[in-house]
């Protein structure tokens, strides 16, 4: 029996009343006059002009007399939310030379102050309406557009109307004063600074080379320091008047409301908008052009060799063609699908060659229409050594074979099966596609000047072109992908002696002999032919898990100790989530096992199972929706997959076989060693890279299990050592299987009996391992200081306090999340809004549920080296202030309302319940704690926050970490004039 997981069911279980939809949002609007811009009847909607693609009837489209276009639809995923997107057809490619960065700066200024929002009031206002800043409230600027995004939860007629009002003020009438520009520019410069370093330099040189002669070559959305520092309110006003106009605007809304009412709101707040001054056409973005005298048969153009000591070798070349608008017809889309099939065949051959010991770690081809500037085919190669010429030649030889000889029908059929299952899955899951994703799809379609197609249309078009999916047509389209007006290339290397532009040009001009040895022969593999894992196990107990109101959530126990939690429901049609928890996680390793921890995350799945190596795994899952994600937590290991009802039984077999009959192929381990070695030095090239490399290790008092292995450690690791570490781990500790989604309950139970129930009894986790807890570092010796080799104006800082862990303190950890968000808001206010020292400081709480301790509260930011002491000082001030001056009702509401809405939305999906209930078959306390979850996250008091701040933030000296450039010393005092004073409460 299945049960639909409705919003009302979920919220009732969590002891919080569901918000009822107002009659205004649910009413039938047929009796009212339709909005004047709505395109109905035989009128072709604006997005489908010139196209024969069937219209997606779930969308309503409109176009106003002022030129503004909109698209609206009803969508109830998640319930009671509206996703609003406002796209302005202006990005960095629309900027004049002295305006570089203005499109992005305008995005910031629109949030800074506008007609209906006072200075710095946008974020708190949206928080009061339940939207989380950064996820529910955001914006993006690209070379071709600026998009404002709002996912508004808990919608009511009043909140929707208010939101459209506020958004209209932001878009139509931002306050572009000099004072606001002066406030926002440092924040943008902080954002720019965080993106700097070796990676940014490589991206910059790559962009300049590949798009030479086009506007895209030297116009990045972040802009330049010179143009940003010279920005004025008057100049921004001119930019706004030129591009922020109704004819350049598309508004998209997908929400749990009557779409006609959504259209009325669009027209109410934007219908009378008129642009200032004459309409301005977008500038010509330019075309890729070959140098004069280039060989038409091999039109080599601009080349660059970029030397960055900390970056791994990588080579990219591109065959470039002019981009032109198209009529988005069915025939055109069939051609794109043929292109995709051809690329998939080449990429599978490249992947096979890399796995079998090729000269490259990875190689790939892909076609992309880049920023309406070029239609290009890119080839990327990651050499295994400094012999990049051989890696490039081998890659080109495999591509040459694809151009010389048509693929086999078997190869085509294999890729067709992969595409078919992907498109079929999208159709199956159409009813549960989030409104935010639907809205984003329209925005993307507008950006590339194409239409939007319903999932059934995509599948029908694909299946309807079966006669075209033959070797001749695929071959013809593949050859066209490698024809173009100019070929450009960039080689990145850590060593200046590796080669120069002449060597790169020579390597690309040399003819290569087609290499057909990587063509994959058809070798049918069936799950029916695989060996059994063991004798089917006996079920020793089964019944309800014990959740009041949802008796369908079951627990099943097997004689070998395996336990399963099952919930068959149709909340997400066509989707099943499978998660397997086993063993002891990080606790299972010895300190000397460090390199094998990292290698396990990279290579354990690829090492195979039973009779299946990596290639066989790829083949047996062709045309199936299956996955195999592996993770290591502090208390357990996990296998996770998103699958579907037709494939869930075979998915369970794969997971169980990995535990019961693992395989130990060497190639994935050797390739992972090489990949880790190539990537290691790059981690030193920026503060963020050093954080990713060392933070977990340092926060756990330098426990070797959490270290990022250096090249020497990786070089000493062996396939034999890998097996010695991982083979006993796969046999150790209890196993819990969770299956949530749309599946046949009896069939899954029988599959579990034949798979996980058939495993040998597990080796117990030793008591010494079970009781392990990570240690918190000593904070009495002053800040820990690390160095990076990036830009001299980049730094990062971390301040952390120990907290706790375990189920017994779970309710307190939820209240601690509220405190963490209060801390985050105050830190954002000081470090970003008031001082402009950091673009996105953040505060996070980690409370391990499987351990009885080891949690942390941590604040971190990327900033300038001289601002590191400021960050430490302000964070400690905020911590102290929270323990002395409790937050008022408004400050609390700005945290608890978004948290309440976040949980309310998440609780309508299976993944939410799976995460909350994992481990519950062995620890029933997790079930009992479920009922208080929403209350714990959304209801508190100033006194509780003050108590928690005193307990966790001021009772112990915090640990501090500073990451500064090599050759610089950490400042020991605040720079002159940079103390923030007393404004730390955020009230």
* Structural domain count: 4
Q: Mean pLDDT, nearest integer?
A: 94
CATH-derived architecture of the largest domain: 2-Layer Sandwich
Q: For the record, what is the CATH homologous superfamily label of the largest domain? A: Metalloenzyme, LuxS/M16 peptidase-like
Estimate what percentage of residues fall within beta strands: 15-25%
Rg result: 29 Å
Number of DSSP strands?
23
If you consult CATH, what is the topology of the largest domain? Cytochrome Bc1 Complex, Chain A, domain 1
Instruction: Going across the biggest sheet, name each strand in turn.
Output: 12-13-14-18-15-17-16
InterPro entries: Metalloenz_LuxS/M16, Pept_M16_N, Peptidase_M16, Peptidase_M16_C
Keywords: Hydrolase, Metalloprotease, Protease, Signal, Zinc
Protein name: Insulinase family protein
Domain Peptidase M16 C-terminal: 232-417, 731-895
């Amino acid at each position: 029996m299945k049960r639909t997981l409705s919003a009302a069911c979920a919220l009732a279980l969590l002891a919080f009343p569901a918000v009822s939809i107002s009659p205004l949002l649910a009413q039938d609007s047929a009796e009212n006059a339709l909005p004047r811009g709505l395109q109905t009847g035989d009128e072709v909607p604006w997005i489908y002009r010139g196209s024969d693609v069937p219209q997606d009837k779930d969308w309503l489209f409109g176009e106003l007399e002022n030129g503004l276009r909109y698209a609206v639809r009803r969508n109830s995923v998640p319930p009671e939310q509206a996703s609003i997107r406002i796209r302005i057809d202006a990005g960095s490619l629309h900027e004049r030379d002295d305006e570089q960065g203005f499109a992005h700066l305008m995005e910031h200024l629109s949030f800074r102050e506008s007609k209906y929002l006072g200075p710095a009031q946008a974020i708190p206002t949206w928080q009061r309406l339940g939207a989380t800043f950064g996820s529910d409230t955001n914006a993006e600027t690209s070379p071709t557009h600026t998009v404002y995004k709002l996912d508004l939860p808990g919608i009511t007629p009043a909140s929707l109307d208010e939101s459209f009002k506020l958004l209209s003020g932001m878009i139509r009438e931002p306050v572009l004063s000099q004072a606001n520009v002066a406030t926002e520019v440092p924040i943008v410069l902080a954002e720019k600074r965080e993106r700097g370093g070796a990676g940014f330099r490589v991206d910059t040189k790559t962009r300049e080379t590949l798009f030479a002669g086009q506007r895209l070559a030297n116009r990045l959305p972040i802009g330049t320091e010179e143009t940003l520092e010279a920005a004025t309110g008057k100049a921004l006003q001119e930019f706004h008047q030129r591009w922020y106009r109704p004819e350049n605007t598309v508004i998209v809304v997908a929400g749990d409301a009557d779409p006609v009412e959504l259209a009325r709101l669009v027209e109410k707040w934007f219908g009378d908008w008129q642009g200032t001054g004459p309409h301005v056409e977008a500038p010509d973005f330019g075309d890729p052009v070959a140098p004069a005298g280039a060989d038409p048969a091999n039109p080599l153009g601009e080349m660059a060799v970029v030397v960055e000591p900390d970056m791994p070798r990588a080579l990219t070349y591109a065959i470039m063609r002019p981009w032109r608008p198209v009529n988005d017809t069915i025939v055109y889309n069939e051609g794109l699908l043929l292109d995709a099939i051809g690329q998939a065949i080449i990429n599978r051959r490249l992947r096979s060659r890399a796995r079998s010991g090729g000269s490259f770690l990875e190689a790939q081809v892909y076609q992309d229409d880049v920023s309406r500037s070029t239609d290009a085919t890119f080839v990327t190669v990651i050499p295994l050594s400094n012999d990049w010429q051989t890696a490039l030649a081998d890659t080109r030889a495999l591509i040459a074979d694809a151009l010389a000889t048509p693929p086999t029908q078997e190869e085509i059929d294999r890729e067709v099966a992969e595409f078919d299952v992907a498109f079929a899955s999208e159709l199956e899951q159409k009813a549960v596609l989030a409104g935010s994703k639907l809205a984003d799809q329209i925005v993307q379609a507008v950006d590339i000047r194409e239409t939007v197609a319903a999932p059934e249309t995509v599948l029908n078009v694909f299946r309807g072109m079966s006669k075209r999916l033959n070797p001749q047509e695929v071959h013809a389209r593949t050859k066209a992908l490698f024809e173009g007006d100019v070929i450009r290339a960039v080689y990145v290397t850590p060593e200046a002696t590796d080669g120069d532009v002449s060597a790169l040009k020579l390597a690309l001009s040399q003819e290569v002999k087609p290499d057909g040895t990587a063509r994959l022969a058809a070798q049918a593999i069936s799950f029916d032919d695989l060996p059994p894992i063991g004798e089917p196990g006996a079920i020793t107990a089964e019944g309800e898990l014990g959740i009041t109101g949802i008796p369908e959530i079951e627990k099943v126990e097997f004689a070998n100790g395996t336990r399963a939690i099952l919930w068959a429901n149709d909340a997400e049609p066509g989707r099943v989530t499978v998660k397997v928890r086993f063993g002891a996680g990080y606790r299972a390793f010895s300190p000397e096992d460090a390199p094998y921890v990292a290698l396990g995350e990279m290579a354990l799945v690829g090492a195979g199972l039973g009779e299946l190596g990596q290639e066989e795994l790829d083949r047996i899952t062709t045309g199936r929706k299956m996955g195999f994600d592996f993770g290591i937590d502090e208390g357990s290991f996990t296998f996770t997959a998103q699958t579907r009802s037709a494939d869930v039984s075979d998915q369970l077999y794969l997971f169980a076989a990995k535990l019961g009959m693992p395989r130990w192929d060497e190639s994935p381990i050797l390739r992972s060693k090489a990949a880790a070695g190539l990537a290691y030095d790059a981690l030193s090239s920026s503060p963020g890279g050093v954080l990713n490399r060392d933070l977990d290790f340092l926060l756990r008092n330098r426990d070797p299990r959490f270290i990022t292995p250096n090249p020497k450690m990786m070089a000493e690791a062996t396939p034999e050592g890998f097996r010695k570490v991982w083979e006993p781990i796969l046999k150790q500790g209890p196993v819990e299987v969770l299956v949530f989604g749309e599946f046949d309950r009896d069939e899954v139970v029988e599959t579990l009996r034949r798979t996980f129930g058939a495993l040998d009894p597990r080796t117990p986790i030793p008591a010494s391992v079970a009781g392990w807890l990570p240690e918190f570092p000593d904070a009495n010796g002053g800040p820990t200081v690390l160095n990076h080799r990036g830009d001299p104006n980049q730094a990062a800082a971390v301040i952390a306090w120990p907290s706790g862990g375990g189920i017994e303190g779970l309710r307190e950890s939820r209240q601690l999340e509220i405190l963490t968000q209060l801390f985050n808001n105050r830190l954002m206010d000081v470090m970003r809004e008031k001082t402009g020292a950091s673009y996105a400081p953040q505060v996070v709480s980690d409370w391990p549920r499987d351990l009885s301790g080891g949690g942390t509260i941590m604040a971190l930011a990327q900033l300038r080296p001289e601002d590191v002491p400021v960050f430490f000082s302000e964070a400690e001030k905020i911590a102290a202030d929270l323990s002395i001056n409790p937050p008022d009702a408004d400050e609390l509401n700005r945290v608890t309302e978004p948290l309440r809405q976040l949980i309310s939305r998440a609780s309508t999906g299976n993944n939410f319940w799976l995460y909350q209930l994992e481990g519950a078959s062995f620890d029933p306390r997790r079930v009992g704690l479920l009922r208080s979850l929403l209350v714990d996250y959304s209801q508190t008091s100033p006194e509780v926050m003050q108590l928690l701040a005193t307990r966790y933030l001021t009772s112990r000296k915090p640990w501090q970490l500073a990451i500064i450039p090599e050759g610089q010393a950490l400042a020991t005092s605040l720079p002159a004039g940079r103390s923030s004073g007393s404004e730390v409460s955020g009230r």
